[in-house]
Amino acid sequence: MLGLCLALVATAQLGRSAPAQPPPAGAQCIEHVCFGVFWGRQRFPGASRLCQARGGQLMTVRSTVAEAAIALLVQNRSDASLWIGLQLPPGQACSDPGRPLRGFRWVTGDERTDYNRWKPGGPVCGSQCVAVAAPDLTWEEKRCDSEADGFLCEYNYPGTCPKLAPVAGLAVTYTTPFGAQDSDLLALPPQSTASAPALGVELVCQEHSSGGMRWSSASPGAWHCQLENGGCEASCQWDGGTPRCTCPPEKQLDRDQRGCSSLCADAPCEHLCIPLAVNFTCMCHEGYQLAGDGISCRDIDDCQTKPDLCDQGCINTDGGFRCQCHPGYELVDGKCEDVIDCYEEKCQHQCVDVAGGYTCSCFSGYAPSPQDPHKCVLFCNQTECPADCDPHTQDTCYCPDGFVLDHYNGSAKMCVDIDECEIEFCEQLCTNKPGSYTCHCREGYRLYKQNLCISEDEFSGETELYPKTAAPTPVPPKPDSLHPGVLIGISIGILSTILVLMAILYHLMKKHFPVHGAMDYKCSNRTEKEVVLQQVPPGCPSANQKL
User: Fold this and answer.
1) Alpha helix (H) residue ranges in 399-475
2) Which one, out of 63, 102, 218, 398, has a CA that is 20 to 30 A from the CA of 168?
3) Cis (ω within 30 of 0) for the bond into 90?
4) If residue 52 lies in a helix (H) or strand (E), which one and from where to where?
5) What is the pLDDT of residue 509?
6) Which is more confidently placed, 526 or 52?
């Protein structure tokens, strides 16, 4: 039976609507923040819940600006205390006098502040909440479960609408989202309403499509030309007793029939739109041309339409072009200029700038190296040329390839051409040149592989043909070396001469000096040694004397 009664009571409670929250007794809005004052005995937790119910919080008093707002809200009231959003963190029993907020924190969870106004007399240990006391607006610590005469709420918004321009004899009432109703508010938060019953107009503060907060009407078009120009961006005019918005030439009304936008606002032009009197036309950026549909743009090939656009090379790009230069040139102010390559040491001797690059040259007595044209080697086009000697060490001299250091001509050492033809480097015919030679063949033969000659018959069967003229001149033998055949011939000649001399000497000794004893052997041996010189040493008999 008791359970049934409790169920009936619970059902009755669910059927009741929540009690309406009282509106603030006063409100002030400064920039993007509004403050409201609520009177009535409340504990700290209850006051905090009532502020949150309307989208706010207990007031944070961080500056003198907030203090000035409190002074306006509590004027004509004395000996009253109101909760603000300052309390000790949970678990902290006593306040700390050495800190600006004494260890208290705002309901936002931080301790940031540029202002405090503690009541003289020191903190009360165990009191964990703060109230502001009128009329001096000092802060005092209170027990959170004690009651204050009221509380202050704070509401923050992204922006506000300004108060409507006053109209003589016209009363306008404003209502804020947190329940404040007044006609003297200077700034109104979003979703605030402005009601002018005499004109039958009710407006709402809301964000405009172009940005910022503006007064607007739920229905499109002008509301009344007398109040805020009917909401028209340009001009508000009466048309048969009905207010209408109009726009200047080259502009059109927006969907709300109050704002004005360009005729090109919704134009499908790819690049540019030019508004006309009642329409628009599309245009393209430089380097493009309008396509056949009159909307899109396509690139112009500048290199094709303007052949002389660049000095040397032209590359078409999207909406333009780019000039480029040949190797050895660089682009300077749109023109191709020859690069000065000889700034760097690229040549061994001399560097000469030419159009589009550079060339190397050599000092007198030198010629470009066949292997590397940047380097120079000794060169002589005569059979005899001065040697290149170290001025500090005259014993160190150099000759061109194909020459040998031979003799002095005055004070200069000379390099003499090596006659490669005498060495029989060519198989048949040879022509000597300064520093080189050329092989030739007799009639009926052709030159094969630089220095060999083969008959015409044999040559016709070769898969690889060679011209009659000699191939590039081979490197001649080193000046300080001889042909191997010459060395062998010289060696055989020397050996034969030695053998002949030994045979003659032996024959003479056998004929004139017969074999004797040991004593005779000593003298005869000496005579045999010196027979070539035709001298007899003193103390020994001659070949015709007897012992």
Assistant:
1) 456-460
2) 218
3) no
4) helix 44-53
5) 55
6) 52
Q: Which pLDDT score is estimated for 282?
A: 93
Whole-Å CA distances, 542 to 513, 519, 532, 535, 537: 10, 15, 14, 9, 9
Paired residues of 385 in beta bridges:
415
**Cβ 128 vs Cβ 140: under 8 Å:** no
- Half-sphere exposure in the Cβ direction for 170 (13 Å, CA): 18
Model confidence pLDDT, tens digit, residues 340-377? 767 666 787 888 877 767 788 888 778 888 778 888 88
Tokens of 335: 């023109």
Supply the DSSP symbol for 216. E
Q: Where are the domains of the chain?
A: 26-156, 302-332, 402-481, 489-533
Class level of CATH domain 26-156: alpha beta
Residue 500: exposed, middle, or buried by beta-carbon count in 10 A (0-12, 13-18, 19+)?
exposed
Pairing of strands 403-409, 412-417: antiparallel
Residue 510's contacts (CB-CB under 8 Å, 6 or more residues apart) are: none
How do residues 283-303 score in pLDDT, each as one tens digit? 999 889 999 898 899 999 989
DSSP secondary structure letters along 383-405: SEEE-EE-SS-TT-EE--TTEEE
DSSP tally for the chain: helices H, then strands E: 7, 40
End-to-end CA, the chain: 184
Dihedral, CA atoms, 326, 329, 330, 334, nearest 10 degrees?
-70
CA 94 to centroid of chain Cα atoms: 59
User: Could you tell me if 75 and 68 are in contact, meaning their C-beta atoms sit under 8 angstroms apart?
Assistant: no
Residue (of 222, 192, 186) closest to 204 by Cα position: 192
CB-count exposure of residue 18 (10 Å: 0-12, 13-18, 19+): exposed
In eight-state DSSP terms, residue 498 is H
Per-residue model confidence (pLDDT) at position 520: 34
| pLDDT value for 169 | 87
Q: Average pLDDT of 1-7? A: 40
Q: What pTM does this model have?
A: 0.51
- Strands 33-43 and 26-30 turn out to be antiparallel
* Strands 81-87 vs 147-156: parallel, antiparallel or unpaired: parallel
Residue 505 has pLDDT above 80, yes or no: no
